[in-house]
Write a structure and sequence with these properties.
Layout (H helix, E strand, L loop, with lengths): L1 H23 L6 H41 L5 E9 L3 H10 L7 E11 L4 E6 L10 E6 L4 E6 L4 E6 L8 H13 L5 E14 L8 H7 L3 E8 L5 H6 L1 E7 L5 E8 L1
Parallel strand pairs: 1-7, 6-8, 7-10
Antiparallel strand pairs: 1-2, 2-3, 3-4, 4-5, 5-6, 7-8, 9-10
The structure holds 2-acetamido-2-deoxy-beta-D-glucopyranose (NAG).
2-acetamido-2-deoxy-beta-D-glucopyranose binds next to strand 7.
Length: 261
């Protein structure tokens, strides 16, 4: 009973409202106005469609770009670690007589790698190392330019040296090695190779060292390096101002000691 009364009351209200609305509509409706409204709504529809098309194409292009960036084989980003043993040369020499193998502590190095096979470039990032006093760094190996550049991220200085192909694996092989490390089919128990570099002078025109090294060293103090064959001059080493970068781009880990006179 109550419900019914309520409904009828509502119905009455609606009726009154309709009457009011009808009264509001002018009797002589302008045809031009209606046409204009239609045109406007059509224009608005076109705008919507165009906007939607734009957004869709943006999504497609962006998706393709992201896909290429993250998933294509050529530009895959690796994050890999390698365990290695730091050989103590003196200890090994004395051990050779007895033929015994003293266990040395195994260390671990991790790095981020991008291998650009088409460009012949390897891009390496060494985060702040957990288990050693070496510096974080960004490294570029450019096989077309036959150059290597180290950016020491602690000192914010760049160092350039001719690429040593017996240390740095070519991009294709290196990518294969990293694939195997990631897949777990190759569990590297690696070893350490030490090399010492001397700063021989400043590079003034970084823009002539190719796109990738320019990208790395632009706006930073950049120096030329020269390999030094005497690694065992420990006293000499202490007299110099040296810092090291640990990295790998082969089956072994390399400790690059960079010294300034
Ligand atoms: C390249 O590195 C290897 C191993 O460290 C070294 O024996 C060789 O002298 C280097 N070659 C050049 C050209 O520096």
């Amino acid at each position: 009973m109550v419900k019914l009364a309520f409904n009828s009351a509502l119905g009455q209200k609606d009726l009154k409202k309709e009457e009011k609305d009808e009264a509001l509509i002018p009797q002589d409706v302008d045809v031009e106005d209606i046409l204009r409204v239609r045109q406007q709504s059509r224009a608005w529809c076109w705008c919507m469609c165009l906007g939607l098309a734009l957004i869709l194409s943006g999504v497609v292009v962006g998706g393709a770009y992201l896909y290429r960036y993250y998933f294509t084989e050529e530009e895959k980003m690796y994050f890999c670690g390698v365990n290695y043993r730091e050989e103590n040369y003196r200890m090994r020499d004395s051990q050779e007589d007895t033929g015994m193998d003293l266990p040395t502590a195994s260390k671990r190095i991790e790095e981020r790698v991008r291998v650009l096979k088409d460009e012949g470039v390897e891009l390496i990032n060494i985060p702040v190392p957990k288990f050693s006093d070496s510096d974080p760094a960004d490294i570029v190996h450019d096989f077309n330019r036959k150059l290597t550049a180290y950016l020491d991220l602690r000192l914010n200085k760049c160092y350039v040296i001719p690429l040593n192909t017996s240390v740095v694996m070519p991009p294709k092989s290196f990518a294969e090695l990293l694939d195997n490390i990631e897949a777990g089919t190759y569990l590297p128990q690696s070893y350490l190779v030490r090399e010492q570099m001397m700063v021989t002078g400043k590079v003034e025109h970084v823009d002539q060292l190719g796109y990738f090294i320019y990208g790395l060293c632009r706006g930073k103090d950049t120096y030329k390096l020269e390999r030094r064959e005497t690694v065992f001059g420990i006293q000499k080493r202490e007299a110099l101002n040296c810092h090291k970068i640990l990295h790998f781009e082969n089956k072994f880990v390399v400790e690059t000691l960079i010294c300034e006179p």
